[in-house]
Amino acid sequence: MTALTDRDYELIEEAKKIIRSNFDEINYNHTVGAALRCRNGKIYVGVNVYSLHGACAEQVAIGAAITNGERDFDTIVAVRGKEGEEIISPCGNCRQILHDYMPECEVILSINGKMKKVKAKELLPFAYTFFEG
Q1: Which residues form the CMP/dCMP-type deaminase domain (predicted)?
Q2: CA distance 92 to 133
Q3: What is the rounded distance in angstroms from the CA atom of residue 11 to the CA atom of residue 69?
Q4: Could you count the other beta carbons within 10 Å of the beta carbon of residue 65?
Q5: Any idea which residues carry the catalytic annotation?
Q6: HSE toward the beta carbon, residue 60, CA cutoff 13 A
Q7: In the chain, domain spans
Q8: Burial label, 98 (beta-carbon count in 10 A; 0-12, 13-18, 19+)
Q9: Over the stretch 31-61, which tens digit does the pLDDT of each residue have?
Q10: pLDDT above 90 covers what percent of the chain?
């Protein structure tokens, strides 16, 4: 685990901004915001799409980046709450997607109240893989 940099705190603020402007207080369909920074410095954001088969905020941000031709990812973070006050860990499905698409990408987490970064591949040590290699 590594400590956060100023750029990481800026990324957290981007995640907070996207959920502040999209938080759904009526139906709670959008309660999580995510921000993904690519190695070239561009940031893509997303909010969760809550439904039976909805997408997590991380998946929406990853999809936005990929749609724009990005393939080299640096850091991702997800926040929850009306003000984005809680940094949350990726769910199991997101961990698998992070492992598949960006195993070297750093993920910002809050562990016992302290923010740290870990490589995405560390979040799912025995991940399913399509092939052995």
Answers
A1: 6-131
A2: 22
A3: 20
A4: 24
A5: 58
A6: 19
A7: 6-123
A8: buried
A9: 999 999 999 999 999 999 988 788 999 999 9
A10: 83
Single-letter residue type at 89: S
Residue-by-residue DSSP string for the chain: -B---HHHHHHHHHHHHHHHHH--TTT----EEEEEEETTS-EEEEE-B-STT-B-HHHHHHHHHHHTT---EEEEEEEESTT--EEE---HHHHHHHHHH-TTSEEEEEETTEEEEEEGGGG-TT---SS--
Q: What is the pLDDT of residue 1?
A: 80
CB 10 within 8 A of CB 48: no
130 sits in the region (left: phi over 0; alpha: psi -120 to 50; else beta) called alpha
Locate tokens 């940094």: which residue? Answer: 87
Residue 19's φ and ψ, nearest 5 degrees, are -75, -35
How many C-alpha atoms does 98 have within 13 Å on its Cβ side? 30
Closest listed residue to residue 35, CA positions, set 23, 47, 26: 47
Q: Map tokens 């969760």 to a residue.
A: 48
